[in-house]
Amino acid sequence: MKEQELLLKELALMLERQDMLSKLTESQCLDAYGYSETHCIDYIGRLELPNVTKVAEHMGMTRGAISKMTKKLLAKGLIEKYTLETNRKEIYFRLTEEGKLLFEEHAKRHRLWEKRDRNFLSRYSKEEVGTVYRFMREYNGYLEGQIAELADPK
Fold it and tell me: pLDDT digits over 69-100, tens only?
């Protein structure tokens, strides 16, 4: 049990340190936006013909949640709606100039984070990294299950 408690404390500490490091090393332009908003902007910037359904699928969220979030992003002037000449019913999103700035900052943040942490991970063997990867994948699956249970109470 002691090892489990120590591991849980280290996981919590890692999340706190990641957050602290992000705030110290990155541009503050993303600070006003939540994790989901930032990633919604990222998907709208990367997907071809992004609409509520596509963004929801990629983010693992409901269409209702994405609809609500895109309304906020529209109100903040980060995205805009458009339709295609061939299909006026389907609504798509694209980034505004301000949205593009946030998209680029988010991409830059990820590149710096990957470079920094790849240097750290290079200390470990392929097998050690594989073990940690399997643990994290299974733990994230467990957390997703917990979220699903809480989101859909029976």
Answer: 999 999 999 999 999 999 889 999 999 999 99
Q: What is the pTM of this model?
A: 0.73
Distance CA 32, CA 98 (A): 13
Alpha-carbon gap, residue 69 to 62, rounded angstroms: 11
Annotated domain spans of the chain: 2-123
Rounded to whole angstroms, the Cα distance separating 32 from 16 reads: 18
The CATH T-level fold of domain 2-123 is Arc Repressor Mutant, subunit A (1.10.10)
Angle at 12 between CA 108 and CA 17, to 5 degrees: 40
Cα(146)–Cα(70) distance, integer angstroms: 26
Query: For 76, which DSSP code?
Result: T
User: DSSP letters of 83-106?
Assistant: EETTEEEEEEEEE-HHHHHHHHHH
* Beta pairing, strands 79-84 & 87-95: antiparallel
